[in-house]
Each structure stands twice: as structure tokens, then as C-alpha cells.
Amino acid sequence: MAAKSDGAAVSVEDDNTPRSLSEPGNPVARSRCTAAGGKPYTLLDCCWVLCALLVFFSDGATDLWLAADYYLRGDYWWFGLTLVFVVVPSAVVQVLSFRWFVYDYSDAGADATAGDSTLSTKDSDQHGGNAPAVNAANVTPRRCCTICMWVFQTVLHVLQLGQVWRYVHALYLGAQSRWHRNGPRRHFHWRLMFESADITMLRLLEAFLKSAPQLVLQLSIMIHGNGVLPLQGLSASASLVSLAWMIASYQKVLRDSRDDKLPMSYKAVIAQMLWHFFTIGARTVAFALFASVFQLYFGIFIVSHWCVMTFWIIQGETDFCMSKWEEIIYNMVVGIIYIFCWFNVKEGPSRFRMALYYSVTLAENVALTAAWYTYRGPQTSDSSALVVVCLVACSFALGTFFMLVYYCWLHPDGPVLGSQWGGCVDEGVVGTGGMVGVIDACLTPSQGSQTDMVITSPPRTLPRTKDKDLGDPVPGERDRDKDSCLPVFQVRPSPSSSPALLHRTSSTSRAQEGPVIRIDLPRKRYPAWDAHFIDRRLRKTILLLETTSAISPRIQYRSSLMGSKEVLEYETTV
């Protein structure tokens, strides 16, 4: 079976692995922490989704309540602006969510029908004679279910509740992955990760289209009116929490979905949320102070900052989209995010870029606050103005403090200044050309004597090299007897490759691999979703293989760790 994904060739190979090879008692079986099965769904995961639902409802409800209050007070101008920043972003996100549903559900229905009539396995030929009768009996119920689902989803999205349904569906998939075992558990885990990716991207887009402008607007109204209504403070607080929550949630779900990244603990998520809460809070207060005095110049400043940030991102040569114009649009959207906070869009060390961004942000906050303090109206006393200035400074300082806490103690890859790196990887050999070593397979104690080297796709915590850096890896690894998980991504070795980097080519090892989805694309050089999370056609392939294979399929990208001969072999098999 083969498919095309935005110009990327995709092939599927199946070694028809028997179930007996993947039993827990077998010494070559994978441990529980493999990404194919995913980590167990816990009560903390469920509580996190419930809290996300609470944040979603709080943000929307307080904004609508405040808009109604403006209308009753006769402030029709503030009522209109508040309502616009609620309705328009929500409508945009609902359209995108419904578009994804149409694509997924239409393809799911077509695949189910096609799968019943065309998909064949070794056992299907024995039951082929009864297939037409079974299909005919299921046509009417399936059609009724399809119509009901379309009506249900249409009503939900018209009522602006598409994200709510996705959150509830994620809870259901998480519970199913918890209760089931083996094959069904893997299937529900894949679906849970896909749903979580969709929710996170939708909510992040909504946060910066709705919550961020709403926060600046309400703070400007407070400062302009020289007073704070309880509903104004409640709405601004909910918007700020929503922004910080979604940025931290995005990073967590992103790391949970990628097999070359270590997962983020909830302590790290809370630290990152506090980091963004205080830095964005200081930023928006500075914006509101300046906008309350210089409305025209504030618009010029925002546009200028957005243009500079967008140009900076484009110069960084991001590689998120498949076409040049889509990439430019993506960079423009990220430029809007950079108005408020830092958002890493490129793989590799980001300390210098982050330090540069926050230095510019600090200078802008000081300049905006100083301009307001100098040209503020007479209704604001010196003592009150000094308190506001201290509030901006302390908020930014607290945000910087929690950022340091995250990177020095709670980062998934370990302390920034430390040398301990947890997880299923060991350090490779780093040279002037980048990463030229590879990672030892993590073995259980019973497997310590069976050190079989494999070539994996870019492992967790290690930077990926560029295509131009392809070359034969240098053997510089050392064995480590640590209880962890076996690597998930494996490239079938070439007999002529370096012996220190190859898995022993035997019929038994080939039988252990199972189905492999080989994607003719390198792993992207940006810290964002992999292609099989972005491209919904690859999702369809994964979920289809989950239902027809005894072993979970593995996703294999063109690896920059391959030697020249491995790359040639890889290209000829795709």
C-alpha cells in the first residue's frame, strides 16, 4: 500500500509479525514505555483536560458577561469591540474545526466501506463469500449513524462548541486507552494523540486571536476610565490565564506526541504557565498604558513590531509548511504571537534567540511605561502611577524567575547547566559538523548481553542534523545497562554499512519489526508537530494499519543519521 502526502512518498511495509513475538515473556519484546502503545492515561491527565475545559468556559463566559454589562451601561462602543473579539475569533476556529471534521469523517466513512470490500489479509479469503451479505445488512444502520453524526457536529459548531466536543472526545479516548490492552489500547492512544493535537492547535489559535486582543482592550478601558470594574478585572484575568495555559499546554502535548522529545512533567507545565502568565501580564499592561495615551502611535508600534518579528522569523528559515507561500503565512501568524510572548519556531539551541527577544521586550516595556508615566493625564496621581510602574517591573521579573526555574530544574531534557540527561538515550559523539554519533539501544537488565545496534530516527533530546550533513556515523557509543525502553524507529540496515551501527540482519530480527510507514521526508528542523500529525492522510494510514496489524505501525522518516548507502537503499524502497 502506498500513498502520497503533499509530495512526500509514503510506503508501508509489513513483515506479518506473529503475536507470539511481542509477548511480554519474549526477550526481544518492547517494554511498556514504547511510544507505540503510549504511556498509560492517568487521573492527572483527566484532571488536566477538565481544567482546560474550565479555562475555556471561564474565558468565553466572562467576555460575554462583560459585553452584556457594557450594553446595559450604554457603552455601545466598548460593547461592540468586546463582542467582536469574542465572536469573530470563535467563528474562525469553528470553521477550521468543522473543516477538519469533514475531512476526517468523510475519509473515515469511505475507508470503512472500501476496507470491507477491498482490504484483504491472509484470513480474509476464508470469509470472502459472506462479505457482500454482511455489507448489505450494514448499509442502512451505517447511513443513519452518518446522518446523525453530521447533524450533531453541525449543531455543535454552529453553537460554537466544537472545542468542547473535542475535549469530551479526548476524555473518552483516554479512558478507553486506559481500560483496554494491547491492540485496542494502541489504537485509542493514536486517536487520543491526534485529537489532543487538534485541540491544542485550535485553542492556541483562538487564544491569540481572542484572548490576547481582549486582554489589551480591557486593560486599556480600565486605564482610560481610571477605574476597574469587577467584571473587567475578571475578564482580563481569564484572558491572561487562557493565554498562559494554552502556551504551556501546547508544549506539553507537543512533547507527548513526538518520539524524539522527552515528555514534560506537570511541574514543568505549571512553571512554564507561570512564566508566560507574568511575562505576558507585564507586556499587556505596558501596551494598555501606552495605548491609553497614544492611540495612534500604539497602532504604529504594534504594526512595526509585527513586521520586524515576522522578518526575523523568515530569516530563521523555518520549515513548517510544504510550500513557500504557506510558510510565509505561517511566519506572519507567528509574528502576531511574538507581539506578546516568546514562541520557539526553530530546532536547536534557542538561548541566544530567547535572550535577544526578551532583551528587546524589556526595552520596549520600559519605553512604553516611561512614555505613559511622562505624558499621563492629571487624573492619575504620582503614587498611583508609581505603583503601576512597579507592577509592570515586578511582573516581568517574576516571569523571568519562573523561566529560569523551568530551564534550570524542570526542563524535560535536564538542567540547562547540568550534564544529566534522562530518558531512553545516551549521549552521542558531537563534532564540528554537528551530531556524528548515534544512540545506544536502551536495554533491560536481561538484555545486557544482547547489545544489538540499530539506526533510529532522530532520538529524544538530541539535535537533528541537516540533509547536507549526511554521512557515515562515527562509532563512539558505550553500552548502558539501564531499565528503559527500546527504540521505536528502526531503519532496515544495509549489509555493507558500518557494523557498529547495524542491527544484525537475520530473519528473526526482520520478523520482529512489523509494519513500518516510511515517509520520504526528513524530520523537520523545527520544534513542532511531525508530518503525521499535520497531514490527515497520514493519520488515516496509521489508524487503518492499527486495525489490521498485530503490532503497532512505526513511523520512519528519512533519517539524517543514515550513511550514504543507507540513504540510497532507503530511497529505492520508498
TrEMBL record:
Q: Where in the cell is it found?
A: Cell membrane; Membrane
UniProt region (Disordered), positions on chain? 1-28, 448-516
- One of the GO biological process terms: phosphatidylserine exposure on apoptotic cell surface
Give the record's keywords alphabetically: Cell membrane, Membrane, Transmembrane, Transmembrane helix
Spans through the membrane: 40-57, 77-96, 229-248, 269-290, 296-316, 328-345, 387-407
> Where are stretches of biased composition, namely Polar residues?
493-511
User: Residue spans with biased composition (Basic and acidic residues)?
Assistant: 464-484
GO CC entries: plasma membrane
Q: How does it sit in the membrane?
A: Multi-pass membrane protein
InterPro entries assigned to the protein according to its UniProt record, in alphabetical order: XK-rel, XK-related_scramblase
> Which residues, if any, are the signal sequence?
none
Q: Which PANTHER family match?
A: XK-RELATED PROTEIN, XK-RELATED PROTEIN 7
**Its family?**
Belongs to the XK family.
Q: What is this protein called?
A: XK-related protein
Give the species: Poecilia formosa (Amazon molly)
